[in-house]
Fold this protein.
Amino acid sequence: MNPVQIIRKKRSGGVLTQQEIESFIGGYVAGAIPEYQMSAFLMAVTIRGMEPEETAALTDVMLRSGTTVDLSSLPGRKVDKHSTGGVGDKVSLILAPMVAACGVPVPMISGRGLGHTGGTLDKLESIPGFTTALDIEEYVRVIRDTGLVLAGQTAEIVPADRRMYALRDVTGTVESVPLIAGSIMSKKLAEGIDALVLDIKTGNGAFMQSYDDAVALARALVGIGTAHGKETVGFITDMNQPLGLSIGNWCEVVESVECLRGKNVPDLMEVTYVLGGAMLFLGGKVTDIADGITQCRSAIWSGKAYEKFLQVVERQGGDISFVQDASKYPPSRFVIDVRSTVSGYVTGFATMQVGLLALELGAGRVRVDDAVDPKAGIVLAKKIGDRVAVNDLLARISTDREKAARDAAHELRSCLTISPSPVDQRPFIYAYVSKDGVTPWTTPPTY
Ligand code: URA
């Protein structure tokens, strides 16, 4: 089939057939369709959208671009989590070892930074020596040995997503329900899971800024998972400020390790515990999510979740001495404190802007082949609801780029709204989504 005709059909709002999608994606993976035609296709899909049957076909074709891992010989129900992406979203780094420490195996295939959001792979690879490029045999060995594996798409596992994801990152084609659904679900269906928990972010730092768009994406994701026989549930969670305090790669690992060692960062840990509770529930370890949350909390307090993290880092080649002692990590050339010039309360964040500033500091990519600087990032000192006095520290910026440091120091202050009186704290989690529908969520009092 002529790729130009397929692009033109989608550009003018047509509904593509399974064969057309197959021919286009297959041609791209085989090297017959160049990056510029795929870029045009992605833009046409982003602007025109896709019907549910096109999204299902896209997911299927992406999934079949590589091998599906079979973990059925390993005991227990394998459960994973995936987020639609946010700023400072380091949940996976805490959640995966915490759930594995509770006895539910977690096979996790993640992505790199996308748009203004960070990616689990870049964060993990900021640990010296850590490798996420595992072949299938090694992937299976790691989960068999540790109950957990943290890997990326490869030439064997969803190669279509690996390349489309990198291209979407630099072509303004991330914010699309069918492309996000295809990307997430192809990875999740390939990794050998029995069940899946999704974190669908909404707010000014999310790809789905409106609640209704987030619900539409959640329904699409849950529908695809359910249609493939995987028990799939989702939570709609808040992304109107960075999650936790750090935004970058190594600094997010540091914050995650602190939480694994018992620090309570309220928004980050509430989301982590609720998603973990749901994973234990789907994994058959507990009778309800509240019980799952209790077990997750005890995995943190007993130190078992942290031990599990050290185990998987070592198993995947990482140097655990940096995890044990973050002060060993080389500092950035420029470290700048941003202080407040006014007093009041933090009432809002320009969250996407904060993510973009982190990217400019070196934490993300502007071009496909850009290297990320693992040290670059922003550590916030204030969050929504916090009181601020003149000269209080708002954030610390780290980067090797002198001009970016100066620009970010100047712009970051305007990313925080500081008002004379406080605002009510938004919920961290809005709703629970399953095949039965969407229901408002209230975190159980066990938290
Ligand atoms: N996470 C993914 O894996 N893909 C997307 O498109 C967005 C978030």
